[in-house]
Amino acid sequence: MRVREFQMSDFESVTSLWRNRRLPLGPLETRDALETMLGHDSNLFLVAEENNVVLAAVVGTWDGRRGYVCNLAVDPLFERMGIGTQLLREVERRLGARGARELALHVPRENVIAQEFFREQGFAPVPDQLLMVKRVRP
């Protein structure tokens, strides 16, 4: 298995993986949106592959002070093999190299398995905070 940067030729494999893992896909996961993101953070969107098959993916982003981890997903056939941990550590390393001293992520309340995984990786919920989002039209 090797970790490498996402390429647009991975789009169908990665979005299929995300749908399979029931990640909420929206306007930020379209082909156009991901191409735009690659113009800013191309080395933070990673995939794990073996024999040209995508096994896992993670998106990292950076706002100049805080790093964000998004859409980490591992193919169910390859869970509990350390692939998610390896991807997370690599995106953390890359974000840290950019200067991030804090990482944030969103986990659906009902996804207890993901919550446990991220707690094991050192993440903790932020008490008394609510995620709020506003869509911006181009």
List the SSEs and their pairings.
Layout: E1 2-5, H1 11-20, H2 31-41, E2 45-50, E3 53-62, E4 67-74, H3 83-98, E5 103-105, H4 112-120
Parallel strand pairs: 4-5
Antiparallel strand pairs: 1-2, 2-3, 3-4
Short synopsis of the structure:
The protein is α+β, with helices and mostly antiparallel strands. The chain is built from 4 helices and 5 strands; from the N terminus they run βααβββαβα. Strands 1-2-3-4-5 form a 5-stranded mixed beta sheet, with helices on both faces.
What does this structure look like?
The chain is an alpha+beta fold. It has a single domain, classed as Aminopeptidase, CATH 3.40.630. It is built from four helices and five strands. A five-stranded mixed β-sheet has the order 1-2-3-4-5, sandwiched between helices. Strand 4, helix 3 and strand 5 form a beta-alpha-beta unit. The chain is globular.
User: Order of strands across the biggest sheet?
Assistant: 1-2-3-4-5
| Residues in helices, as a percent range | 25-40%
Count of folded domains = 1
Percent of residues in beta strands?
Answer: 15-25%
CATH fold type: Aminopeptidase
At the first level of CATH, the class is Alpha Beta
Total number of beta strands: 5
- Compressed to H and E, one letter per element, the order equals EHHEEEHEH
Q: At CATH's second level, what is the architecture?
A: 3-Layer(aba) Sandwich
Average the pLDDT over all residues and give the rounded result. Answer: 91
Give the helix/strand class.
Answer: alpha+beta
Radius of gyration of CA atoms, rounded to a whole number: 15 Å
Tertiary shape: globular
The profile of the biggest β sheet is: 5 strands, mixed
CATH superfamily descriptor: Gcn5-related N-acetyltransferase (GNAT)
**Termini, distance in Å?**
39 Å
Supply the number of helical segments: 4
